[in-house]
């Protein structure tokens, strides 16, 4: 194995991908598996997990599925216990479960606000807190990748609650990066630009798409596999001095003004 291959290799590592049954985190999970990691897909749909696990297996990787309610502390703690019992360590944690909504601000119900915060923010809080306790006991620490959003950097119209939750995730990530910087735990935010996925299809109206393309220098949406390179950098030894960053993968969206 060459120096570069070794730098990005995840051979012998265990990766837990919360939200791994979805489109974007599923692609990230495939990338982690292709680099040698044993991947645990976490989500609610065993059917979606089966399809993703087959793709990973067909490519020569290894993956398993664990069901979990991400906003439940008991469920998250049980998940960690099962993973450690089965694999011995957790070297990489991806927090990518998420919900979205396009409800006009004055019509947002308190229950909707609370539910999106429970999944998008509380879920990240619980997973970071729970899995970091394990990583702190490990000689090589670990890497935590929280999936953020461009709406957490620059507030976007029509997704008020989602934007607020993602901004909170970005802030928490930086705080934890500072907290654990000397403990061999790196914490970063992976920030996708516009990638068509199940949770945002409801807001991608023709007018919205035109606005997005007019603000994206590459003039196209991202494809899920285009998140893999950034994922591997943040997860592997190649990113050993990278913590507390917002790793933007957006086709130039954040660089565009007028």
TrEMBL record:
<dbReference type="InterPro" id="IPR036291">
    <property type="entry name" value="NAD(P)-bd_dom_sf"/>
</dbReference>
<dbReference type="InterPro" id="IPR020904">
    <property type="entry name" value="Sc_DH/Rdtase_CS"/>
</dbReference>
<dbReference type="GO" id="GO:0005975">
    <property type="term" value="P:carbohydrate metabolic process"/>
</dbReference>
<comment type="similarity">
    <text>Belongs to the short-chain dehydrogenases/reductases (SDR) family.</text>
</comment>
<dbReference type="GO" id="GO:0016616">
    <property type="term" value="F:oxidoreductase activity, acting on the CH-OH group of donors, NAD or NADP as acceptor"/>
</dbReference>
<dbReference type="Pfam" id="PF13561">
    <property type="entry name" value="adh_short_C2"/>
</dbReference>
<keyword id="KW-0560">Oxidoreductase</keyword>
<protein>
    <submittedName>
        <fullName>Putative oxidoreductase UxuB</fullName>
        <ecNumber>1.-.-.-</ecNumber>
    </submittedName>
</protein>
<dbReference type="InterPro" id="IPR002347">
    <property type="entry name" value="SDR_fam"/>
</dbReference>
């Amino acid at each position: 194995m060459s120096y570069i291959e070794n730098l990005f290799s995840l051979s012998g590592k265990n990766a837990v991908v919360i939200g791994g049954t979805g489109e974007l985190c599923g692609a990230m999970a495939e990338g982690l598996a292709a680099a040698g990691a044993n991947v645990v897909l976490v989500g609610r749909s065993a059917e979606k997990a089966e399809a993703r696990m087959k793709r990973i297996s067909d490519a020569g990787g290894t993956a398993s599925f664990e069901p979990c309610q991400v906003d439940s502390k008991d469920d998250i703690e049980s998940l960690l216990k099962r993973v450690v019992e089965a694999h011995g360590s957790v070297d990489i944690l991806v927090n990518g479960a998420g919900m979205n909504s396009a409800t006009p601000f004055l019509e947002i119900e308190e229950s909707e606000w609370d539910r999106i915060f429970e999944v998008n923010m509380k879920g990240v809080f619980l997973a970071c807190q729970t899995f970091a306790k394990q990583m702190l006991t490990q000689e090589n620490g670990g890497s935590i990748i929280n999936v953020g959003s461009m709406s957490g950097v620059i507030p976007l119209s029509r997704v008020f609650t989602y934007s607020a939750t993602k901004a909170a995730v970005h802030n928490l990530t930086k705080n934890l990066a500072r907290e654990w910087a000397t403990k061999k735990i790196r914490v970063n935010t992976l920030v996708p630009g516009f990638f068509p996925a199940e949770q945002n299809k409801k807001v991608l109206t023709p007018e919205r798409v035109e606005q997005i393309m007019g603000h994206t220098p590459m003039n196209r949406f991202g494809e899920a596999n285009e998140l893999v390179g950034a994922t591997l950098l943040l997860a592997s030894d190649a990113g050993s001095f990278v913590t507390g960053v917002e790793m933007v993968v957006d086709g130039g969206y954040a660089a565009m003004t007028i």
